[in-house]
Design goal:
The complex is a heterodimer of chains A (359) and B (270). Chain A starts with a strand and ends in a 7-residue tail after the last strand. Chain A has helices spanning 40-48, 90-100, 105-118, 134-147, 164-179, 192-198, 216-221, 226-231; strands spanning 2-12, 15-26, 28-33, 55-60, 63-64, 75-78, 152-156, 184-189, 201-206, 209-215, 238-245, 248-251, 254-257, 268-274, 289-301, 304-311, 314-321, 331-336, 342-345, 350-352. Helices cover 23% and strands 36% of the residues of chain A. Chain A has two domains: 2-231, 3-Layer(aba) Sandwich (Rossmann fold); 238-352, Nucleic acid-binding proteins (OB fold (Dihydrolipoamide Acetyltransferase, E2P)), CATH 2.40.50.140. In chain A, β12 (248-251) and β13 (254-257) form a beta hairpin. Chain A is α+β, with helices and mostly antiparallel strands and 359 residues long. In chain A, the strands form four sheets. Chain A has a six-stranded mixed beta sheet with strand order 6-7-8-3-9-10, with helices on both faces. Chain A has a six-stranded antiparallel beta sheet with strand order 13-12-11-14-19-20, with no helix packed on it. In chain B, α3 packs across α13 (236-256). Chain B has 14 helices and two strands. In chain B, strands 1-2 form a two-stranded antiparallel sheet. By secondary structure, chain B is mainly alpha-helical. In chain B, 74% of the residues lie in helices and 1% in strands. Classes of the chains: A alpha+beta (359), B mainly alpha (270). The interface between A and B is medium-sized, with 22 and 15 residues.
Amino acid sequence: MSLMLKGVAKSVGGASHIYPTDLEVGSGLTVLLGHTLAGKTTLMRIIAGLDTPSSGRVYHNDRDVTDLPLRRRKVAMVYQQFINYPSFTVYDNIASPLKLAKLDKAEADRRVRETAELLRIDNYLQRLPSELSGGQQQRVAIARALVKEADLLLFDEPLVNLDYKLREELRQEMTRIFSERKAIAIYATTEPGEALLLGGTTVVMDRGRVLQSGPSLEVYRRPVNVRTAEVFSDPRINTASAAIADGRVQLGATAFSLPAGMAPLAAGEYIVALRAGHLRLERRDPEDVCLAARVELSEVSGSETFIHVRHGNVRWIVHQPGVHSYRSDDEVKVFFSPDQLFAFDSNGELRHTPFAAAA
Amino acid sequence: MQESGFKKRYILLGLYLLAVMLPLYWLLNMSFKTNQEILSGLTFFPQTFTLDNYRLIFTDAAWYSGYINSIIYVVMNTAISLAVALPAAYAFSRYRFLGDRHLFFWLLSNRMAPPAVFLLPFVQLYSSVGLFDTHLAVALAHCLFNVPLAVWILEGFMSGVPKEIDETAYLDGYTWPRFFTTIFMPLIKTGIGVTAFFCFMFSWIELLLARTLTTVEAKPIAAIMTRTVSASGIDWGVLAAAGVLTIIPGALVIWFVRKHIAKGFALGRL
């Protein structure tokens, strides 16, 4: 099973939404990761056949499906909004694709009940979608997508409109559901955490371009460029320009010795990057680099604190577990281990990652 | 202070209601009186209560056929308007095509010309194709202003349905006609009801086209009412009874859509 895009591009009224893109997706779960307006939805709509690309072809199992009418495609899609047929009961909603496929009645009934059970909505089969909670409505939509056993399952940010608890719960179930299915599943999200949790493959998109694709953890550890690292990091990865010369790194007003991993790098200007979670407010290791910084803003989110600090021209975010309170203009000392630094050249291409090459 | 303002509002409202209801009451009052009483002086209640006026209308074919004719062409018109406007409104709400906005506005501008403008062409056209003095002639002529209105109202209601529902249905394997009748129409049933009401209403109260395009076979009630003058003068009582009976269908229809009527006046865009 495979899905292949060849030179697919989409422009609307002169504005490019998708630049020419080649992409190959195999069976299993693929996460489409990107900020809003990255072109995730546009790309998905082209894959589904809801929109036609301005140029390029889409191949499904080596067959050109670019101009195939929607009804003849084996595609199911779940939207960000909870889309069900409001006048049908939950049972009829889930059964509708099977009814249209003229499936044997007993077999259809078995599959509807099985899928409903999988998504834990088997107690609500006789209700109307409007009588269910948001999470349950989305479960119905997912059940309808799964029940017809399409080769291609598209999920366009399906959990965005759910509250935090429900999202966690459904996300875990999605992992379980996907692991048991032999289909190409594409899952669009803006959250890096979701990409890592769901595993599989990640395709990072930004402003209409595919930046990188590969196994999720691999992309996370070795982002090909700064932009990929920024998209695949929440909060945004901290970056700063730094100069490397004579075995030392000059970062703003602070200098420290070049970590062993970065030794092969030639002298010159680089962009160093560090995830917010790798910045600390206390020293853990004698090797740690210390930056004297000033707090610009501190925000508490749940049981985590994000402290925006400034060190000369460098503006970084420190991600601290637990609730801390800092006032603006407080002086703080920020520590990090130089071994956790990424380094990109002045064009933004990856030159060094703190992770050893994949085995 | 607040209480007196409260009272003032009620007094104003009461005066307004009186002004609105008085002619209606007078019509009802007259319909139960004899001609003699109507012409003899001012009475607030029928002194000699009579149902003769109504009896005449329900027994004289010249009278009741007017109601039957009116109802036939109004129902025909409502059906035709809905049948034409449903797919058209769907196209306007779902597809972008060259000049769609202009075409949509042009539809509404059809309502800006007085129907009398089209009188002559209609008479000429229908006479030459043998449609003159038929129910269909009036029903078709009324489409002139009812179809644009129906398209506008339905488009408003349809645009309130997310287009992802359509897409999901097509991906599920629905054909357009099946999707439209089994999924989409139940979703906008309020809109269809309101649209039907407006078509019914405008066709029911239109007099000029209906009267001119018919002579005998399809003569509407409103036309018959204008011809109650006989040798013995105007038959006031019967005329009033006919007026009351003419108001009833509209009142009945409005009862069914009373909760959604405001949305209809806003062309479905609330």
